[in-house]
Amino acid sequence: MFKSSISRRMVVKAAACLALAATSLASLPAHAETTLERAKKDGYIRVGFANEAPFGFATPDGKLTGEAPEVAKAVLAKMGIAQVDGVLTEFGSLIPGLKAGRFDIIAAGMFINPKRCAEINFSEPSYGIGQAMLVAKGNPKGVKDYSSIKDNPDLKLAVMAGAVEGGYAKDAGVAAGQIVALPDQSSLVAAVQAGRADAAALTALSIADMAKKADGVESTKPFGEVAGKSVKGHGGFGFRKEDTDLQEAFNAELKTFLGSPEHIALVEPLGFGKDYLPNKTTAQLCAGE
After folding, report:
1. pLDDT tens digits, 42-54
2. Helix/strand/coil percentages in the chain, nearest 5
3. Helix 244-257 crosses helix 35-42 at what angle (to 10 degrees)?
4. What is the CB neighbour count within 10 angstroms for residue 217?
5. Which long-range CB contacts under 8 A does 115-121 form with residues at least 24 apart?
6. What is the pLDDT of residues 72-104, one digit of tens each?
């Protein structure tokens, strides 16, 4: 009799515990779907780009192309994400747009540096490249690099708002009043053509592409140092801090892809190739090395 009574009480208590546990589990929040999980399920992902050739731009018929979008498309396809949709964004709004969820990856050839690393995560770099200046045909002001602007206070230098060139100009001693910040490549070209700026600064590949497509302008010889420091920039893909699984999966495929015959064949028509492969890691670049 005593034993039966104990057994019944144990059964009642066990049932109560199971009910409580079930209630507690039901009240827990469901697993939040990650960006990577959503993209794999839906079969597509959105990337932000700034219409800066040859890094990331839209063709006249609306096709998303450029070094960063093409590499992204190849890497994402290997991850099982077949469709990549581009979201055109001014360069200075790419990081805010990513953090606000307007798109899920920055595919704009964005240089990796400590300031940006504090805001977002980066893939390993996909290229490394130096700088050049866009000047009027014949280079009438004799511009060679940032020091040319610093040494002549009458000269104006156009840079793209939010890009690294504004910082390079300041490092070189160019006065703030000589710097004209503009939203995109076409604005830089127009400023030089109209004489509102005596030069425009961007990466050597961008300047070469702009000079090839526009009338009345040309590129200076590329250079790799400003104020005694290397300005060989390394560009990569940007991710939100919380999207670590997406970043890690992307990196795993990117490391295998970079330098492969498939990669070189993809980017050579855009002006990239073996000479533009990166020689620094993201850890080094985020540390300012």
Report:
1. 999 999 999 988 8
2. 45, 20, 35
3. 70
4. 21
5. 116/238, 117/282, 117/285, 117/286, 119/95, 120/95, 120/238, 120/239, 120/240, 120/241, 121/238, 121/239, 121/240, 121/241, 121/243, 121/244, 121/247
6. 999 999 999 999 999 999 999 999 999 999 999
